[in-house]
Structures are given as structure tokens and as C-alpha cells.
Amino acid sequence: MSEWSPAVRKDLEASGWMAGRRGDTADWRSLFEGVGIVMHDAAERFLQEFGG
Question: At what angle do helices 26-34 and 41-50 cross, to 10 degrees?
């Protein structure tokens, strides 16, 4: 992933994000599958880092 500007990084960290975060995506996957959406790899990587 690209480096964030200091202001963006500060805001991300203030909201609880940290570099290298790898959250569980099981709930997201279940939600998507419930409406017929297949979660692809890029979406999963994004949600691992930024999904709440």
C-alpha cells in the first residue's frame, strides 16, 4: 500500500487503524454472500485493513 500523508495517517490512527492491521472478514463475507455477492481478494484485503 502507498504511504499516507501525515494528516491522513494521523486521522486513520485516531480512528483506531494501525499499519499492518489484519481484521477478520468473516462477518463481511457472510453479509455479502447473503445478498449474492462474492467477495474477491482485493475487497478482502481492503476490509482486513480498513473494515470495522
Answer: 130
